[in-house]
Queue: 3 jobs
Job 1
Amino acid sequence: MRFPRSYEWVMAERFELHAMQILLDYMVRLQHYIQVSLVSAAIVCLLGSCAVFTENSAWEAKRLRKACDAGEFTACADLSDLYRLGFGVPQDDSTAAGLARRACDAGVAEGCYLLGSYTYYGQGTAVDKASALSIWEKACVSGDAESCGSLGAYHNEGSAYPHFQGRFGEPEREPQKALGYFEKACAGSRGAACFDVARFHHAGIGVSKNEEESERYARQAMALLEEDCAQTGARARYGCYQLGAVYSRGFFHMKADPEKAKAYMARACHQGSLQGCYYWAQVCEDGGLFLPRDYKQAAASYEYACDRHFDAACYGLARLHLFGQGVPKDLRTALALYRKITPTSPMVAVMAELVALRLENPASFSAHIDSATPSEECIAGSWDVCPFSGFFDLLCERAGYETQCVRDFDFGVDLVSIGCLIGTEELCPFMNPLLDERTRRRY
């Protein structure tokens, strides 16, 4: 994953970054003593709304480069992470992969974890999943908890660490092997892996069902993640994001807490977590307790993550450009963003064709759709009976996919809504009923 090109401008006000970092660290530690909703409010006041922070790491990058060149190979691994994120140096996957390989060849476990991740996903190097698994195995045997966790995730069909975008492959499910790797990672102080072990005990996957053990591992996970979040850099990115994820949806023995989720995701974003920034952008876009909607800062956060190839953020930024929220209304910019992520998403390819068709021939754009009153079947998601089904077919054909390719309900609602809002009046009668149906399904 990754964060903005050269965005040390993204602060709402030009506070001195090091001092702000100290204050943020202090605020995180206060969460042990003060109700987290007050901490969240304090962070909002402190940052002047939904500001996105980058680490002031140019000096750190120079220091690590000097150390790496002098043969301190742990520094090479750390520098690889900076190149991956674009902190203090231009973002460069190839350089990041080369540095990780150099560290791994010298026996640095963290370097091997990074190299395995780059190799698995083809970041800066060719995709080679078999080699990636071998690299992770070697690092796990050497005691690298992250590599053990990645192997556990692989054998558990993709449940796991969100350090890199994309899903794990679809190997044959081997729960006992997955549990063994998660236990090793948990013993190595990786909180998310302890949650996986807790889940296995809770559900009786690969082990006898045991609620007492599940609760014990869950408590251990929370303690480890709190410790990580109170640090800076990579550990804080990891710990704060994981805590935010736990509180955003709850986890067996812990209830969801939106205010805690906001506070932890903000902290993760400030430390460089793209997932944290994406979540924080959504908070800015949607608003919430203590926080009015702030489309300008939502756009800045989405753009930051999008520039680092976090596709969901590009999708969010395109939406803001379509509606002119926080950024100028600009269909061409939205289309460029859709095109950027089209290779990884057939649905976004269809969305891109919707916008492209609107730009190419606005006069005849609406002629592709027959006007009609929304039917119950159509609103329920039976797209074949909708009067715009032929229009969907056209978009699918333009995108290079088979006819009737739009089957996902949420995406169909997005397509209808955006089509209406960019000028296809025939879709507008369907928009509100579909949005109401989506709300009903979710809640």
Job 2
Amino acid sequence: MHFVFKVALFITGVCLFGSCTEKIGAVSRVTDGKEADGANHRKEQEDYYDEKHLRYEDHIYQSNIYTVKMHKKGFGLNPPVFMLNQANDGIEMSFDDLDNDLKDYQYSFIHCNADWQPSGLVANEFLEGFFTNPISDYGYSIGVRIPYTHYALTLPNSNVRFTKSGNYLLLIHLDDPEEPVITRRFMIYEKSLRIDTQVKPSSVVNERTQRQEVGFTLYPGVLGVKDPMAELQVMLLQNNRWDNMVSDLQPVFIRENVLVYDHNEANVFDGG
């Protein structure tokens, strides 16, 4: 069975992802802080089960929506990943609405950090064009048992162009962005460094016929990475699956601007 593995690499500044915290008064407010954290956690759990709660993941929020697809432009089986500012490169997204009427669906974006949480960038910092746009490509089903309306979208397009690489959340909604209909993840990358990969049977003898080991080497080159442990975040995905993603990988060897990620267990996936 053939598998596709993808290495996602993020160059991160500590403060960019909210790691810088103000500690003044922390000791005197420990109890209050714990109580507040507990209340916030309970609130988050309650919100998560609300159908309108925005999830920063692939999700369908309404029962009339089916057949949601999102992939690299022209390649129906490839994940929704494309290169920044590359002509004719992009993604295609489509879905069906079984209400079989015409709705004013709109789309917008949230720029996310490596952990798929909002990065804090505002729209004009990561795109050019209109932040919210209507989906104007649609069609009605013909000769089917269950009628539906088909909607399609291509990105980038004449209304929007991305200016920054990174993780993005596509948000499909009607009039109110606070009431999502669909959310889908996609990624935009830049060719800033060289990555050599190797897929081989697991190093564990009794798992060699069942599991695959993914090793890779990074050549940061012009990026000027001084502290790879702190500045680089590496995620390893199998067939665009987020449920078994391997994250927080650290290099096993570092030598003269070469980072070797040749783990024996941390980067092993089931082969079938």
Job 3
Amino acid sequence: ELSNDAVIQLLTVEQFFQIANYQTKPKFSPFQWLKDKLLPKKTAKGFTNKSQVRRSPHHSSPQFEYESETRLETWRDSLLTHKHVLDASATGTGKSYDAGRLRPEMFDGVERIVYISNDSRNVTTSTLQDWEILPARHNGLTNKSGKLRRAKSGESLDTQANCSRTGAIAALRDKAISDTKIICETCPLLNACRGSSGDGFGFKHKRAIAFNSKILRSHPASLPSPNEFDYSKTLLVWEEVSESLTTMRQILVSREDVDRAIAVISRSSLDHKQKIIDVLNKLHGLLGDKSYHGLDFHGIKSAIPEIIDTTLLADLLKPDLSILDTVDAVADSEFENVKGRDKRELARVNSLLKHATTLNSHEIEKKINREVLKQWLMEFLDIL
């Protein structure tokens, strides 16, 4: 706020740049942005006088210009010597159209091309519309103004659900848990999902069919994990890379999450548990701040001691997902000693037992929300 006798001086653009020590960015800066995202440089640690630091000259990624009719050839030739290529051509110059003309046989060592878009279901580019869509789990899709999107409760469906446990998997991910295999493995529709499609199943079947195609469209979140899929012979084409390429994730933490962490730690035998509980109690108080801009970083930092031994904390907070496997069944060995009618009756009992002990999607979702600990504390302490 200015005082009444304050003097306001108007600055020219040149004066502003001089005061701000502003350096204009070259037009090839998107190449450097992508390089920094994909190949981050390690930051030196320690203490030093900044005035004595000698900075190396700025090295930018190579810049290429090409005629529009040679775009595909330029991409192909660039990938011979570079792993990552960013086309910074202006909007409306036909990048998406030309991307739809790509085929694996144009490149050495490429067997599949995946076009990645935040709206992969509703591409409008003609050359991309015949690309196979890589399915994502959903509870059904509805058509709104000519576009398919996930249906909300009560909305009419244009595409039936391909996974009855979509909500349970989403609940686990809301707990910052990426390993959701147990949800699939305990599903009574698992075998049907692998081999056919119907209302509430078929995600795995349709996904397997999609991977038979050499050209795919996919949402970033639908891409398989590098731990489960070999990308060495796959070319990824990102639409609007600054929006679709995510380098961070958001975990929402409430006072209830803090209380749950305190409860688990207080019942443990950790030697230094009171120090951690004190930190969490301070954080609990800070979470009472409902301001628009959220918590002040320095306020959080001041509540955290310089050193907290988290060696044993990770094992303590690791979620026990075995509680989601409630399925019971007759042991295989029991079938070895029976034949004929007795074996058929035992099979019937086994089927009834599995059905009675299998939780439906809503029950699993409630159990996750009620009993599975959100995985936030370790990352929170590491970041601070």
